[in-house]
């Protein structure tokens, strides 16, 4: 049995490797074709007003700010202090960081943990979600969200997204609820808040737990209340690319003291809450692991927290301005907010790209063309509900012992978790990364101009 599973996982790895190779070679061929076109039509110099991808001058040449950034004089001093103290394992600086983060979110308690993934894993575990339970989540998210459910032995049930906000669609949640459903796991994906008002109403009505994946939602607000503070627990990530970067790091917030005590205990080997770090023989009271933060992580976090609020305000203002500049370009459909959102975190600036309005120019080519104009972008997430990891989890020894065979019918699960809106979204989405939104208003004009330029030349580029 064991070798079977290993063999099938090996097969999957090989398939993915082959697919990546084919993709890379195809891109190289497309590039070669374009070079030839550019040489034939414009000669080797290209044209001044033509598309950068075809040898013209890019709209933007000066690039964008590097990420992450920090204030050398102040921040490096604080981190050096921690380094020189020799106290690197969890102590006072971590506690200060937790107090500061709880205050920033408006929650009673915060526990800093190794990363956002484990913030989710711990939260679900300490709300007693595990074998036999189902958790409803959106498919438009980072892989860590469904993995945190599977890691607890529960079954993820994908529920489709709202096509305008890209968030879990509350109108579809109730149809996914069964007698096994224990929790809803909304994700504030791209930093745009999910519709927490509607989701909390559904949770109350059906007596379900709510764990918010706010790993992209730092300081975003609905009616002035921070995301992550609505549910039973809110989880954050401070990974290097995130708007609040520490390299690695995560946090759980909640108003529930008993829950937070259990989370603390779990993240410190299961030792009783209040047991000092490094203490032995004090009595280990529950199942636990080790997910502790370090003092230098907390020092970097405190430094980053100083600029998070002004930067969040700036990203939001620039995003709304950029949206106003591009919303009337045919084929460009920017994000919409869920009800009551007064501030988004904009980990990414998202819009849908409709190739029909660009003379059939494919999204892949649009992305290459926009990147060539000096506005790097990407197509974002693929369809999570169709990737092989759920099937692989169903084939593990643990799942086979926790569930009856009928409950692990993968084809039935696939059918139940079909998400047609998400499928469309994954083929139309374009993302701009957050640090672009920290530039000035006139820099947003560069982005809008680059998109307009591609629209103007789309007929020509579509034929290349
Ligand atoms: C980054 C992220 C996570 C995981 O956080 P890590 O700190 O990378 O473990 C979970 N969910 C979402 C939506 C994320 O973007």
For the terminal residues, how far apart are their CA atoms? 51 Å
> How many helices does DSSP assign?
16
Series of secondary-structure elements, N-terminal to C-terminal: HHHEHEHEHEHEEEEEHHEEEHHHHHEHH
Mean pLDDT: 92
Query: Which architecture of the domain at 75-303 does the CATH hierarchy give at level 2?
Result: 3-Layer(aba) Sandwich
CATH class of the domain at 75-303, please? Alpha Beta
Q: Approximately how much helix is present in the residues?
A: 40-55%
Low-confidence sequence ranges:
1-7, 21-48
The structural class is alpha/beta
Q: Strand order within the widest sheet?
A: 1-9-8-5-4-2-3
The biggest beta sheet, please? 7 strands, mixed
Characterize the overall form: globular
CATH-assigned homologous superfamily of the domain at 75-303: Type I PLP-dependent aspartate aminotransferase-like (Major domain)
CATH fold title of the domain at 75-303: Aspartate Aminotransferase, domain 2
Question: What is the gyration radius calculated from CA atoms?
Answer: 24 Å
Write out the distinct hetero groups bound to the structure.
pyridoxal-5'-phosphate
Strand content: 5-15%
């Amino acid at each position: 049995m064991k070798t079977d599973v290993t063999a099938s996982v090996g097969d999957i790895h090989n398939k993915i490797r082959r697919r990546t190779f084919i993709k890379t070679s195809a891109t190289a061929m497309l590039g070669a074709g374009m070079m030839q076109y550019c040489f034939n039509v414009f000669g080797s110099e290209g044209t001044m007003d033509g598309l950068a991808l075809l040898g013209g001058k890019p709209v933007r040449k000066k690039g964008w700010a590097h990420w992450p950034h920090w204030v050398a004089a102040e921040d490096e001093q604080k981190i050096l202090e921690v380094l020189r103290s020799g106290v690197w394992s969890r102590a006072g600086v971590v506690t200060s960081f937790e107090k500061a983060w709880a205050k920033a979110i408006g929650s009673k308690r915060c526990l800093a943990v190794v990363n956002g993934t484990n913030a989710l894993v711990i939260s679900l575990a300490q709300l007693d979600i595990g074998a036999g339970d189902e958790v409803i989540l959106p498919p438009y998210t980072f892989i860590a969200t469904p993995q945190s459910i599977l890691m607890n032995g529960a079954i993820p049930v994908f529920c489709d997204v709202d096509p305008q906000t890209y968030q879990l669609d509350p109108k579809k949640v109730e149809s996914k609820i069964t007698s096994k459903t224990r929790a809803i796991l909304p994700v504030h994906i791209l930093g745009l808040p999910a519709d927490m008002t509607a989701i909390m109403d559904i949770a109350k009505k059906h007596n379900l737990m709510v764990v918010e994946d706010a790993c992209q939602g730092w300081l975003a607000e609905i009616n002035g209340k921070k995301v992550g503070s609505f549910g039973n627990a809110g989880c954050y990530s401070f990974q290097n690319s995130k708007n609040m970067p520490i390299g690695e790091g995560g946090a759980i917030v909640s108003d529930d003291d008993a829950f937070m005590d259990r989370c603390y205990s779990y993240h410190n080997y299961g030792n009783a809450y209040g047991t000092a770090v490094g203490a032995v023989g004090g009595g280990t009271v529950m199942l636990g692991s080790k997910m502790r933060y370090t003092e230098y992580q907390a020092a970097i976090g405190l430094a980053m927290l100083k600029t998070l609020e002004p930067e969040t305000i700036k990203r939001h203002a620039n995003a709304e301005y950029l949206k106003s500049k591009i919303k009337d370009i045919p084929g460009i459909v920017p994000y919409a907010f869920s009800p009551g959102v007064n501030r988004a975190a904009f980990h990414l600036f998202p819009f849908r790209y409709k190739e029909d309005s660009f003379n059939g120019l494919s999204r892949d080519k649009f992305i290459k063309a926009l990147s060539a104009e000096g506005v790097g972008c990407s197509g974002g997430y693929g369809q999570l509900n169709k990737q092989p990891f759920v099937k692989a989890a169903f084939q593990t020894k643990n799942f086979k012992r926790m569930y009856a065979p009928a409950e692990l019918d993968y084809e039935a699960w696939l059918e139940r978790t079909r998400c047609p809106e998400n499928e469309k979204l994954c083929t139309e989405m374009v993302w701009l990364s957050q640090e672009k939104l920290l530039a000035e208003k006139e820099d947003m004009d560069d982005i809008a101009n680059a998109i307009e330029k591609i629209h103007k030349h789309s007929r020509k580029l579509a034929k290349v």
